[in-house]
Design a protein that fits this description.
Number of helices: 18
Distance between the termini: 25 Å
Structural class: alpha/beta
Radius of gyration: 26 Å
Largest sheet: 6 strands, antiparallel
Strand content: 15-25%
Length: about 575
C-alpha cells in the first residue's frame, strides 16, 4: 500500500509505477491517505520529485460520477512536483467488456516499451518469458503437529466470553478493524419483501454486546463474509489437499512483498484458511490463467489456459469467464489435470474482501444495535447459470439460534456521505430500493431529536420501488414517523413511486417534478442539502437531470446554468450521491 512508501526516499526513486482506486465521493483509499496527505504539503517545491520517472494507472468504474478521480489528481500532483511522466495516465474501467484489463493491456505494453527504451536492460539480459514459472510469493510452513485448532470459529458454549474487547482508554472504533473485527451477534434476519416477489431484501439486526461501538448517521458497517462448509469441502477435495494440515507460518520469499496476514490467526488448519480467507467464488483475472497453465499436465488443457491468457484469446475468455461470472472453483473443476503446489495458493486466489453497507439505523434511538438493509444477490448468467453474492447469500442462511454461526465479524468506518450537523437545515433525500438504508438512519435520528424536544428542519424523502404490495420497504415505519412528526409540528414529506403499479412507469425523478416548487424553495431559500443513494445505473443521472429542470424552471435560468448551480451545491457539500454498481 502507498502508506508504506518510504516518503523520505521517494525523491530518489528512479522509476515509480502507481496503481490506485477511487472511493466514495472521489476520496483516496484508506491505504493511501497518509501518502496523499504528504504529497499535498505546501512546503513541497515544484522540483521535489524531479528525479522521479512515473506512470499512473487508475482503477475505476465509469458508471460513477467521480470516475478515476484519485488517479487523475495523483497524476496532476506528481507533475506539479516536477516528476517526469513516462506515459500518459491509464484509466481502467470495470464497465469495459474486458473489465480493467481492457485498458491495462495496451497501457502495460506501452509502458514496457518506454521503459526498455529509456532504461535498457544490461547486455545479454532478456525479460523473463511467460513460459517460465515464477517463484511463489510466499512459503507456507506446515506443522507436523495434528492438534485441532479452533481459533477461527466459536466452539465455546459462551462465545461472548472469548471475544476480545478493547482495553480501558482505547477507542473501540480504532480497536476493531479488518484484522481484529468484533463478532456481533445476529438477532434479526427478516425478509421484508413479499415471499412471492423475485427480489429477497433482508432486514439484518446485529447486537453490539459489550463492544461499546457507536456510530453516526451515514456511517458504514464493514462485514467480512466466509465460504460455506460445502464450497470449502469441494475445493479442498478438488485440489487434493489435506484439510487437517496445520499451517504454522506464511513467510514472504521476496523481502519487498508487503502483504498483511494479520487477519489470519496462526496456527490454523488448511480447512479454516480455505473457509475464512480465500475468495474461491470470485471471478478470475487474466493472469490467473497464465499462472495456472504451468500446473496443467494435460496438453490440451495447458494450451487452452495459455490461449485464455493471450491477447488473441481475450474474446473467448470474456465469453467463458467474465460474462458467465465463472468462479475460481469452477475453473479448477473445468481443468481436472491442474495440480497446484500449496505454496502457489496465495499467488492464484485473492483474499475475501469485506463488504460495506450503509448502516440503516440511528445510534441514539437504538443504542448497541446496528441495522443493515440488503438485497440478496441472485441472478442468471447469459447461459442460465444461477449466481449468488458471497456475502448476501451467507448472511441470508445464518441461523439466529446457532451460537457457532450466528456471529458476524464487523467493524465500523466513516461513510462518504454524512447527515449535516445543523439539524435545523432541511434535507431532501432520494433513495429507491435499498438506497433508503442510509436515509432510514437520517430520518430515525431526526425523529428521535424531535421526540426529545429539539427543533429539526424540514425533510423530504422520495422512495421508489416496483410494487406497493411486494417491495415497499419499511412502509409502516415511515408512515408512522411522518404522522408523528406532523403531530409535533414538523414537516416530513414521504413521497413514494411504484414503477410497475400502472401502465406508465413512474420513478422517483418523475415524483420530484410534481414537488418541484417545494424542492426549489428548500434548496434556494432554506439552504437544504440534497442526497441521492442507490444503484449507479440510470437513476442518479436521471435524478440530477430532474433537479436541473426544476432549478431551470423556478430559478429562471438555462439548463446549462442550472447544471452549474448543481455543481456549486456539490462544492458546498449540499449535493451528495452514494451509489454502487
Amino acid at each position: 500500500p502507498l502508506n508504506n512508501c518510504d516518503l523520505l526516499n521517494l525523491p530518489n526513486e528512479k522509476i515509480v509505477i502507481f496503481v490506485t482506486s477511487t472511493t466514495g465521493q472521489g476520496e483516496v483509499p484508506d491505504n493511501m491517505k497518509s501518502f496523499w496527505k504528504f504529497l499535498l504539503r505546501k512546503s513541497l517545491s515544484s522540483d521535489s520529485l524531479l528525479k522521479v520517472n512515473f506512470a499512473v494507472f487508475g482503477l475505476g468504474d465509469s458508471s460513477y460520477p467521480k470516475f478515476n478521480f484519485v488517479g487523475k489528481r495523483l497524476h496532476r500532483r506528481l507533475l506539479q512536483l516536477g516528476a517526469q511522466e513516462l506515459i500518459e495516465r491509464g484509466d481502467g474501467d470495470d464497465q469495459h467488456q474486458f473489465g480493467v484489463d481492457g485498458a491495462l493491456e495496451p497501457w502495460l505494453n506501452k509502458l514496457w516499451q518506454v521503459l526498455l527504451e529509456k532504461f535498457p536492460l544490461p547486455l545479454n539480459t532478456q525479460p523473463i518469458p511467460n513460459n517460465i514459472l515464477p517463484q511463489p510469493k510466499y512459503a507456507i510452513k506446515i506443522s507436523n503437529n495434528s492438534t485441532t485448532i479452533s481459533n477461527l470459529t466459536f466452539l465455546a458454549s459462551d462465545p461472548e466470553s472469548i471475544i476480545e474487547l478493547p482495553p480501558a482508554g482505547v477507542n473501540p472504533r480504532e480497536f476493531f478493524c479488518k484484522n481484529k473485527p468484533y463478532w456481533a451477534k445476529l438477532i434479526k434476519n427478516e425478509r421484508i419483501t413479499a415471499n412471492d416477489w423475485h427480489q429477497d431484501v433482508r432486514h439484518i439486526q446485529l447486537d453490539l454486546g459489550f463492544s461499546k461501538l457507536n456510530y453516526i448517521p451515514g456511517e458504514v458497517v464493514c462485514i467480512m463474509p466466509n465460504n460455506s462448509k460445502k464450497i470449502t469441502e469441494i475445493i479442498i477435495n478438488r485440489l487434493n489437499f489435506d484439510p487437517n494440515l496445520i499451517i504454522e507460518a506464511i513467510e514472504p520469499l521476496n523481502l519487498d512483498e508487503t502483504a498483511n496476514f494479520d487477519a489470519i490467526k496462526l496456527p490454523c488448519s488448511l480447512e479454516q484458511l480455505f473457509e475464512f480467507y480465500f475468495d474461491f467464488q470470485g471471478t478470475p483475472k487474466r493472469y490467473f490463467f497464465q499462472l495456472l497453465s504451468h500446473f496443467a499436465s494435460a496438453e490440451h488443457e495447458k494450451e487452452k489456459l495459455q490461449f485464455f491468457a493471450s491477447v488473441e484469446g481475450q474474446n473467448e475468455l470474456r465469453e467463458y469467464c467474465h460474462k458467465e461470472k465463472r468462479t475460481f472453483l469452477e475453473v479448477f473443476l473445468d481443468f481436472p489435470s491442474v495440480n497446484i503446489p500449496i505454496n502457489y495458493i496465495f499467488d492464484l486466489i485473492p483474499a475475501i474482501q469485506p463488504r460495506f453497507f450503509s448502516i440503516s439505523s440511528a445510534n441514539n434511538p437504538n443504542p448497541n444495535i446496528i441495522d443493515v438493509t440488503l438485497a440478496i444477490v441472485k441472478f442468471k448468467t447469459p447461459y442460465g447459470r444461477i449466481r449468488t453474492g458471497l456475502c448476501s447469500s451467507w448472511l441470508s442462511k445464518l441461523d439466529l439460534n446457532d451460537s457457532q454461526i450466528n456471529r458476524i465479524p464487523i467493524w465500523i468506518r466513516e461513510g462518504s456521505t454524512k447527515l449535516i450537523a445543523d439539524n435545523l437545515k432541511p434535507i431532501i433525500m432520494v433513495g429507491p430500493g435499498t438506497g433508503l438504508a442510509m436515509f432510514r438512519s437520517f430520518i430515525q435520528e431526526r425523529a428521535w431529536l424531535a421526540s426529545q424536544g429539539h427543533r429539526i428542519g424540514s425533510m423530504m424523502f422520495f422512495f421508489g420501488s416496483r410494487s406497493q404490495t411486494k417491495d415497499w420497504l419499511y412502509a409502516n415505519e415511515f408512515i408512522k414517523i411522518s404522522n408523528d412528526l406532523k403531530n409535533l409540528g414538523f414537516e416530513f414529506d414521504y413521497i413514494t413511486a411504484f414503477s410497475q403499479d400502472q401502465f406508465s412507469k413512474i420513478y422517483v425523478q418523475n415524483k420530484m417534478i410534481e414537488y418541484s416548487f417545494k424542492i426549489w424553495q428548500l434548496i434556494d431559500q432554506q439552504c437544504a442539502t440534497f442526497y441521492v443513494s442507490g444503484s449507479s445505473g440510470r437513476m442518479p443521472s436521471a435524478v440530477r437531470t430532474s433537479l436541473c429542470e426544476i432549478i431551470s424552471k423556478h430559478g429562471s435560468m438555462t439548463i446549462e446554468d442550472a447544471d452549474k448551480y448543481v455543481r456549486q451545491l456539490e462544492l458546498k457539500n449540499r449535493y451528495s450521491t452514494e451509489t454502487w454498481s
